[in-house]
Write a structure and sequence with these properties.
about 20% strand, binds aspartic acid, alpha+beta, 9 helices, four-stranded antiparallel beta sheet, about 35% helix, about 325 residues
């Protein structure tokens, strides 16, 4: 009889987006809310892994929570296009077999990451977009919602403010949106628009079977053109996973991440240059991305348990936890 494979220690890294997140501009209450949400989502993923669940299940569990959390730019709480709509992108990849699923421009499926997973597992394709993607979601029994479900007042005000500042037309308040909420003081709005500049969500996980997976879910960039697709649903750019190298989820100005193929690039440096994971992530973010003047960050994990994060913005919402370890939740770039 073959000797039993030793069990791996599970591990998990989560991000809630990178951007201009500055200590001086975030009040204590907002900071505490972000930390609590990141902790809650990470612990939910850890529970899956600790129960012997797969890396894929853990990634989906984490992102389902962040998609429902209005603090993050994914699912409910997503940013708006210049025409005042929420168009959601997501992707997921299984490092054990290189299977992947992605969706772009989704407007009705409550959990885009689950839809990406359904594309991977239940369709012959890797990527579906728009109405066809939502219709597939309905067909496989994923919860469909009115597009107004994704609306949040703070994202709306933030869009209005950006469009006014840029002298662009402000679209009518979307149908199905709740009546205007209480007036939020402008200072707070100013903060929140910067705070949420990128705000995408992502997770990478290693399970006890030694498999890794990555997933990313986002509303994209605020005031984006209708139909614009970022890096998050592009396999190799915003998301990548291979048991031969690493699993990566990215956040930042997607156009740069697509052009550099960031997620795959990090894994290539591990495979072909033999770089430790942290060095590979730093090389891509602090050298290659910066050369193009792009900004953002990545989280990464390797089958041997190496964890990494790297970003060139003032902050990135992030958390990590490994089996037997202590949960770490961080926001600003001066937190080690
Ligand atoms: N990368 C995402 C995009 O370009 C945005 C983000 O990370 O917040 O769509």
């Amino acid at each position: 009889m073959a000797a039993q494979q030793p069990a791996h220690h599970w591990a998990l890294v989560v991000h809630g987006g990178a951007g201009v997140i500055e200590r001086a501009r975030m009040d204590a209450k907002t900071e505490a809310a972000y930390r609590a949400s990141l902790a809650q989502a990470t612990e939910a993923g850890a529970k899956v892994l600790d129960g012997g669940g797969s890396a894929l299940d853990a990634v989906e569990a984490v992102l389902n929570i962040l998609e429902d959390d209005p603090l993050f730019n994914a699912g409910r709480g997503a940013v708006f296009t210049s025409e005042g709509k929420n168009e959601l992108d997501a992707s997921i990849m299984d490092g054990s077999n290189l299977r992947a699923g992605a969706v772009a421009g989704v407007t009705r499926t409550r959990h885009p990451i689950s839809l990406a997973r359904a594309v991977m597992e239940k369709s012959p394709h890797v990527m579906l977009i728009g109405a066809g993607a939502d219709a597939f979601g309905a067909q496989v029994g994923l919860e469909q919602v009115d597009p107004g479900f994704f609306f949040t007042e703070s994202r709306w005000q933030s869009l209005v403010k950006q469009l006014q500042k840029e002298g662009r037309p402000v679209p009518p308040r979307p149908a199905g949106a709740p009546p205007p909420g209480p007036v939020v003081p402008v200072a707070q709005l100013e903060e929140s628009s910067d705070t949420h500049l990128y705000g995408t969500t992502g997770a990478v996980a290693l399970d006890r079977a030694g498999n890794i997976a990555a997933g990313t879910s986002t509303g994209g960039m605020q005031a984006k053109m209708p139909g614009r697709v970022g890096d998050s649903p592009i396999i190799g750019a915003g998301t990548y996973a291979s048991n031969q190298s690493c699993a990566v989820s990215a956040t930042g100005a997607g156009e740069y991440f697509i052009r550099l193929g960031v997620a795959r690039e990090v894994c290539n440096l591990v495979t072909f240059r033999g770089l430790p994971l942290q060095q590979a992530a730093d090389q891509v973010i602090h050298k290659e991305l910066e050369t193009l003047h792009g900004d953002g960050g990545v989280i990464a994990i390797a089958p041997d348990g190496q964890l990494a994060w790297s970003f060139n913005t003032p902050g990135m919402f992030r958390a990590r936890l490994n089996e037997g370890g202590k949960l770490e939740v961080k926001i600003f770039n001066d937190e080690p």
